[in-house]
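Q: What structure does this chain adopt?
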Amino acid sequence: MKVEPRTVILKDGRKCILRNATGADAEGMLKYLRTAGGETEFILRYPDEVDRDFTNELVTLEVVSKNEKALGLYKKMGFKKIGELPMALKLDSGGYYSEVLVCRKKGEKR
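A:
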């Protein structure tokens, strides 16, 4: 999906530029994923599990089943649910979340 770049003002007054990611963004995105993975249970990787293999022809995403906003967004972007793994994520609290697997082919239109 291509996005026309635009600038928005955040509630705290900072400027935020919305645009498509580029190859130059990869390291920053990996760093962010490592940081976010250590801060929330809704990221399916711990910081030391971030994968750098971006060569697959099939784009697959694993989503925490309780993360309904993400599931809705991915569906809107053409991803299809291909499976669910119950009790895939054990929380430090002792509870569990299911993991939903969604996919679509690279370059496939919505």
